[in-house]
Amino acid sequence: MSLTVGEVLKLPGLEGLIVRAGHLHLQRTVRWPYVAENEGIAEWVMGGELVFVTGVNHARDEANLLSVIEDGIAMGIAGLVILTGGTFIQRIPQTVIERAEHHGLPLIEQPYLLKMVIVTHAIGTALVHMAQARRTRHDILSQLLTGDYPSLAIAQQRAEHVQLPIDGPRRLVAMRLSSVSVLFERHPPTEAERLLQHTRQACQDHLEAWSRIRSETLPVILQGDLFIMLLPDQETLRADLQGLYRELTTLIGDMTLYMGMANRVENCGHYRQALNEARQALDVAESLHPASGFCDFSELGVLFLLQGIGDRSVIDHFVTQTLGPLIEPSRKQPFTLLETLDALLQENGNALRAANRLAIHRNTINQRIQRIEQQSGQSLDDPLFRMNASVALLVWRMTEVPSKEST
């Protein structure tokens, strides 16, 4: 639980605040309010601040306000509030509004008659209440994740008291930023550390905003270098996580991000087990570098063995040798035979059930089976080929960008 820019605007007494830009980004987390008394703000903020500029101590002309916008974007502030009216800033220049909108920075106008002490007091009080509730929620979840709680019944009672929905089936997802060494190789230590913390904060903010719009949300937990999410088990979860991964890759620059997902757990008493499973899946993802950045614990099996192969080219050669002849780059759908082979293996070789899975006619799948055997030079009745193909398909699904028609 955290205070967002949008929630600030809804606080009692702050109805006079008006959003001028960044309407689609009001989910940004506000760490604290900061009144900027210097000409620039880059040296005085660390990210997450709701920055107020008044024009009292420095002339805030168009050029200065544009510079403040650029500083705020670079430093990752939550939003910018400009006081207008009185004898200082009469209005917000249109260029400033357009610049903030272009960068997705919430820009808010505060009439000068709305006293600053009222605004900062309301935000400060809300932040204190939010922080207390946040600490309680994180404490409960951290205890459940480590198994370090006095009793499960007490943990459930505490969760109910703070309206923390821990009952019901969930999937635990653990994420970690990788290739951190790249930052320290390319930048001086101080700058590398600043970039690392800024990126971690950007990821946390994005994860919290992403989880907030989902039903039955739970807070994102930080444990060491892990981001941990406990998500409702839904049919679209895997596709949703792939979309989330693509969004996060735009935030992490030269670093990489990997995810590991645990098996479904039915209640909060199994969160500790789920975290252990997600860690194992995450370790495999970091070893095999899937294009989706994602590994599901339920799919591990032989991947544990593949993880032990030090030379990744050996794995790639095996996949290419096994599946390469079935890829048809000249066709509109080059992976049709791979998807058909995958469906056949999923249905234990039953062509009729595989045809139903693919929503195609039985004659069509029989034709595809003939093409698979002709182009691979193997028989689907050969158990060794089926085993090799199953392993190769598992690696292929992880390391290749799936086609739009992929099953």
Quick structural gist:
Residues 337-394 form the PucR C-terminal helix-turn-helix domain. With 407 residues, the chain is an alpha/beta fold. It folds into 3 domains: 5-123, HprK N-terminal domain-like (Udp-n-acetylmuramoylalanyl-d-glutamate--2,6- Diaminopimelate Ligase, Chain: A, domain 1, 3-Layer(aba) Sandwich), CATH 3.40.1390; 166-298, 2-Layer Sandwich (Alpha-Beta Plaits); 309-399, Arc Repressor Mutant, subunit A, CATH 1.10.10.2840.
Describe the overall structure.
This protein has a five-stranded mixed beta sheet. Strands 7-8-6-9-10 form a five-stranded mixed beta sheet, sandwiched between helices. It contains 15 helices and ten strands. It is of the alpha/beta class. Helix 4 runs antiparallel to helix 5.
